[in-house]
C-alpha cells in the first residue's frame, strides 16, 4: 500500500503543503522511494515544506541534490525548521529526480513531478513511483506518462471527430459508410 502524505508544514508563517507519495517500508529495494509534486519551480520555497514533512518518517534531511534543468535558481543552502539543508546540483542526475540525504537514516530518491502537471497525471506518477521493488527509473516513468498523455489526447481527438461526423461509421480507408454498408461517394 502506498503512503500519500499531504501535510501542512508552516514556513515563514504561511502554510504550504508537501504533496508526497512514499514507498511503504519493505524489504524490496526499488529505483525510487516515492514521488514529490511541488507547487512551483522555486526550490527555496518548496524545499522547507518537503523537508519538514519528511522529518518524522525519514529523519532530518541535511542534503539534497537536483539537476538544475528544471530549477531556475538552485540555492546552496535553504533554512528549514531550525536547521539548514545543503543543496547541490549535478547535470548527470536525471532532471526529474531529487536525492535527499539524512545523516541518521540514509538516502532517498524521489521522482519530482512537474508542478504544471494535471492532477490525474500527477496521481498516476505518484502511484507508480511508490511501488515497492519497482525497477522503473524517473526517466522511464516520465516517458511512460508522456505516452499515456498522447494516448489520452488521441482518444479525445477521435471522440471529437466521431461526434463531429454525427457518429458515422468509418471504413478502414477513412471514408464514411452509408447505412446500407456501401461507401459514400465523394459527390453525395
- Annotation field: number of helices: 3
Overall geometric form: elongated
Structural class designation: alpha+beta
Question: What would the average pLDDT be, to the nearest integer?
Answer: 83
Characterize the biggest β-sheet.
8 strands, mixed
Name the helix and strand elements from N-terminus to C-terminus, one letter apiece.
EEEHEEEEEHH
Structural overview:
By secondary structure, this protein is of the alpha+beta class. 29% of the residues lie in helices and 26% in strands. An eight-stranded mixed beta sheet has the order 1-2-3-8-7-4-6-5, with helices on both faces. A hairpin with a 3-residue loop joins strand 7 (97-102) and strand 8. The chain is elongated and about 70 Å long.
Q: What is the fold's blueprint, element by element?
A:
Elements: E1 3-11, E2 14-22, E3 34-36, H1 43-58, E4 63-66, E5 77-80, E6 83-89, E7 97-102, E8 106-112, H2 119-129, H3 138-164
Parallel strand pairs: 3-8, 4-6
Antiparallel strand pairs: 1-2, 2-3, 4-7, 5-6, 7-8
Task: Summarize this structure briefly.
The protein has 188 residues and is α+β, with helices and mostly antiparallel strands.
